[in-house]
């Protein structure tokens, strides 16, 4: 633990980038150790992500949750947009296949790749409920701080200026605004909703001139999406 903390303490860049990179690498490992690892690796990365957030707290002063009417409104609005746009455009894999950057998946392959604990472990089973709970906790409490610190605190400002700490959090700049939203969007299968979501969260940071509202908005969006997934059986969102 001390070795990791020393790395985070070395520079403002490492404090904001390394936790996100570790989380992303663990995401890529999901499913690499058999089908079940799609689920237990998510639990591992959630635990590691929470630990990294704890370690990075002293070095990322802006990583503070803020509950405000604006954060609630944006969080709910992005959830409605995310669900409402689904099916109106091809997802990232299908889009890349259309332009020759990948192979189109069959309906069976898409269904097999869905993160669906009840289908894998059995509806109502203890393991299915456990992994649903882990997913909701991870997406609502762990993902928002890690992603918002990386995208909104680091990447947006770094694009503007390599010495990113000299760029105020609330400064609006067109190029970083657009580029960061594109990166954020294509991190998700729902790329169009992701880009619009990036605009909304970044706009919130620029408006409130702090990161906390965006962290809260992101958490609200993901919590509502998790409830929607479970209630409606809309596993394609996971």
Describe the structure in your own words.
- The chain has 238 residues and is mostly helical.
- It has one domain.
Gist?
With 238 residues, the protein is mostly helical.
Question: What secondary-structure arrangement, pairings included, does this model have?
Answer:
Layout: H1 2-10, H2 12-29, H3 37-56, H4 69-85, H5 92-98, H6 107-113, H7 117-121, H8 126-160, H9 174-185, H10 191-208, H11 212-232
Helix pairs in contact: 1-2, 2-3, 2-8, 3-8, 4-10, 4-11, 8-9, 8-11, 9-10, 10-11
Strand content: under 5%
The helix content, as a percent range, equals over 70%
Topology order in helix (H) and strand (E) letters: HHHHHHHHHHH
**How many structurally independent domains?**
1
List keywords for this structure.
mainly alpha; 11 helices; 238 residues
């Amino acid at each position: 633990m001390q070795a990791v903390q020393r790395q985070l303490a070395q520079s403002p860049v490492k404090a904001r980038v390394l936790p996100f990179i570790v989380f992303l690498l663990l995401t890529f490992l999901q499913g690499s150790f058999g089908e079940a690892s799609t689920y237990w690796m998510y639990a591992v990365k959630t635990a590691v992500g929470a630990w990294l957030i704890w370690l990075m707290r002293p070095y990322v002063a802006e990583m503070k949750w803020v509950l405000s009417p604006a954060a609630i409104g944006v969080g709910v609005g992005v959830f409605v947009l995310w669900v409402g746009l689904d099916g109106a455009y091809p997802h990232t894999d299908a889009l890349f296949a259309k332009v020759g950057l990948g192979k189109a998946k069959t309906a069976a392959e898409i269904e097999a790749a869905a993160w669906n604990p009840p289908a894998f472990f059995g509806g109502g089973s203890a393991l299915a409920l456990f992994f649903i709970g882990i997913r909701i906790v991870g997406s609502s409490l762990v993902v928002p701080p890690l992603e918002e610190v990386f995208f909104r605190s680091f990447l947006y400002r770094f694009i503007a200026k390599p010495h990113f700490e000299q760029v105020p959090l609330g400064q609006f700049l067109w190029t970083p605004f657009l580029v960061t939203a594109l990166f954020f969007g294509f991190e998700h299968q729902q790329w169009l909703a992701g880009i619009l979501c990036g605009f909304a969260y970044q706009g919130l940071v620029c408006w409130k001139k702090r990161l906390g509202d965006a962290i809260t908005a992101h958490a609200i969006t993901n919590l509502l999406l998790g409830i929607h997934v479970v209630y409606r059986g809309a596993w394609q969102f996971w």
